[in-house]
Please model this.
Amino acid sequence: MINRTRIYSILVFILWILFHSTYCAYAEKIAIVIKSQNLSAYNEVINGFEAECMQNDITIKSIYDLKGKMKVGHKIIRNVRKENPDIILTIGILATTIAKEEIKNIPIVFCMVINHERFQLTGANITGIAAEISIEKQLKGHQAILGPLKNIGVIYDPSKTGNIVVSAEQKAKDIGMNLVKYEINSSKEVSEAMEGLTGRIDALWLLPDSTVLTKKSFDLIKSTALENKIPLLCTSDAFVKTGALAAVFSDYKCVGRQAAQLAGEILESPSSESLGTVNPDSFKLAINADTAEKLGLKLEAILGEPHIIVYP
Model:
């Protein structure tokens, strides 16, 4: 006959196994956040990520700031390896490229990388959220202010934003627009480009192109556009604050929430494979009211919408 003490011991052991297995299945996962520098937009992403992580049983152990310095990044990566998180969120190009190069065995979700396709941010452990809103949503957002646009101009350097222009050309046609392209290879050609486009376009769409957009060239573009009553459309509200008419851009807090949702999906999957790169779920539309007035535009029909921000 089996000893009662032995039976009790066996039952306790079985219960411990069941409890331990259940605990492991539902135990919180650990995330680490690495941001390229301390920007308000990046901090909004983190706020959204933190809020959504609470809903996905993910605990943020550490938040690192690279302060825009490569050397700081390599030091932080060593700390990240020691902490050995289940997943990493990288914000901005510096944090993302360093993590991609040095971490191969931990899933990475990246965001806030402008024109990410230029940087080959792919891999078995790399998932991302594009910085830019889809081209269709951008163009339709601008139509909400300006009405139907027939000819929309774009100045671009093929080596920087050629991929965006190729994609945008067909998508513009699909919604009844004609993309009027002007190719340049130096910021010195911006003045010539503006002269070449003036009189041919209903609006000018500025891409995140470092050849086209310098401080000096933006001032020239802005003044020329305003002088010729050309609405200036952008992909960042920073330009709207300084005089461009409008921008369709990511809702940064929602990007953080979306990143946490992607992290949850990855951690639930046994294979933890990449989910690729997706577009932001939500966007905001920024408008400069002073510029709109100078262009003779009426904004009453769209004011008050929750996704619209009016400057100044």
Observations:
- Residues 14-26 have pLDDT under 50 and may be disordered.
- The domain at 135-249+284-311 is CATH 3.40.50.2300 (Rossmann fold).
- The chain has eleven helices and 13 strands.
- The radius of gyration is 24 Å.
